[in-house]
Hints:
By secondary structure, the chain is α/β, with parallel strands linked by helices. Helix content is 45%, strand content 12%. The protein has a nine-stranded mixed sheet, with helices on both faces. α11 (335-343) links the parallel β6 and β7 (353-356). The chain starts with 11 loop residues before the first helix and ends in a 5-residue tail after the last helix.
Amino acid sequence: MPEQARFPKAAWVPLLSGLSWLWIAPGHGIFFTLLAALPGCLLLVSGGALLLVPGDRRITHYAAFGGLLGAVIALPALFAIGFWAGFLLMGLSAWSFTAVGAHSLLAEPPSDGVPAPIPAIRLSAEVAADEAMLASVLPFLPAPRRGEVARINAEMSAARELFEERGWLEKPAGYHSVPPALVSPTLRAARVRGIDYEQLIFESGFEPHSDEPGRDRWLSYEANRTARAWVLRHRDANRPWLVCIHGYQMGTAGVDLLAFPPDWLHHGLGLNLVLPVLPLHGARKIGRRSGDGFLAGDILDCAHAEAQAIWDIRRILGWVRAESESKIGVFGLSLGGYNAALLSTLDDDLACAIVGIPLVDIPGVMVRHGLLFATRDREPENLDADRMAEIMRVVSPLALEPRLPLERRFLFAAVADRLVSSGQAVRLWEHWDRPRIEWYQGGHMTFRAHPSVRLLVEEGLRAAALAL
C-alpha cells in the first residue's frame, strides 16, 4: 500500500459526523443515546485514526461501516428526534460513507492490467460497501489458537514433502481422483421467497488421500459429509444446464438464488440450474458462520475443501449428464469463481466457463487482510504465506490449464474490488490467455448493479449455445 499523507481531508468527514451524533443524541432520551453511540463512536474513532494512523486498511472498514450504520439509524430518527436533526445525521453519515470510499480509492495502489477507476460518487459508494462488508466479516473469522500455528506449519511441511514425492506439485491434476457416479440422490421439493426448487442431497464420499496430513480432522466434520445443491429444472429435459457456484459465506438457497436470479437465468433464458453448496458452507458449516474454515489459516483444511468441492460438483455433473444429454456451462462468483475456474481444468465437456469477481489466490487474500498474523493468543510464530501457496497449488486454477477453447472462457471483474483485489482477476485472465473480460466501474459487492455484467454473462451463454 502506498505511503499515506498525514491528515487526509476525507478523515474530517467521519470525525465531524461522529461528533454530531454524540452531541445531538443525549437530548433525546437514554434509548436513542445508546443507539447513537454505535455510529457516533465508530465514526469519531475511525475519523481520528485516519488522521493519525494513515495507511491501515482496517480503519476504512470501520469508518465505512459507521457511515452505513448511521444512515440506517438516522432513518427512524427522522421521526424520533425531529426531521431536521435526523436529516442532518443522515446526511453526515452518507457523506462519511462516500468520503471513506473516495479515500480508499486514492489509497489503493494501481494494479497492472486493471483499468483506472473513474472517480464518481457512485463508485465511492460501491467501494465503501466493500469496506463495510469487511468490517462485518474480518473481526469474526476464527483465528488459530495457542499451539495451532506450530501444528499448521508442521502439517504444511509434511504435505509439501508428500505432494512433491507424488509429483502433484508439478502435475496438480494427479491430486484429484475421479469420483464415482451419483446414483439416485435424494430430491426434495422446497420453496423460498416464492421460488420453487428442489434440494439435491447425497453423501459426498470424498476422503483426502490416506497419508495426507489433516485427513482425520477433515473426516471428523460430520455435517460436511452430506453434499447439497439447489436444482431448478424445466419439464423439457433437453434444456441446457448451468452450474452456478456461490461465493464465500453463502450456501443457503435464499441467498444463493439472489446471486443467481431464477427470473433471469431459469425463466428468462430458459436454463436448468443447479447450485452446489460448497464444503463448509450452509448446512455443511463447522463453525458459527457459513464458510468458517476457509480463511482460518488451516491451509490443509482449505485444500481439502477445494478438492471436495470439485469432487462433489463432478458427481453432480455426472448426475446431470445421466438425466440429459444437454450442454452444461459453469458460472461462478468470487470463491465460486475459483471453483468454476478449477473445474474447467478437470472437466472435458463443459460448454463454457463464466467467472466473476474471482478469488484465485486464497493465501494472497489472507495476506491482504492480515489474517495470517491474527492468532488469538499473539503466538510469536506466524504462518508462511509462500508455503501455503505451494500447498494450494494442487487445487489452484492458476496451476492447471483450462480445457475449454479460448472463445468459451469469460471473465468479469471490478476495477475497485476491496474484498479480493482486482489483481487476482488479472492473474486468471493472463493464465487463461486473455479471453473476453468485462471490467466494470464498481466494487465486489455490487456487480449485479452493472448492466455490462449481465450482457457479458449472456454473451458467454450464447457463445456456448446455452441461450438464444
